[in-house]
Amino acid sequence: MAPSPPPPEELPEVCRDIQIEYSNQVMKLGLVLFQLLSEALKLDPNHLADMDLDKGLAFFGHYYPACPQPDLTMGGAKHSDYGFLTVLLQDEIGGLQILHDQQWVDVPPTPGALVINIGDLLQMISNDKLKSVEHRVLANKKGPRVSVACFFSTSIAPLTKKYGPIKELVSDDNPPRYRETTVHDYIQYSFYKEVDGVSGLVHFKL
Ligand SMILES: O=C(O)CCC(=O)C(=O)O
Ligand SMILES: [Fe+2]
Question: Which pTM value belongs to this model?
Answer without folding.
Answer: 0.95
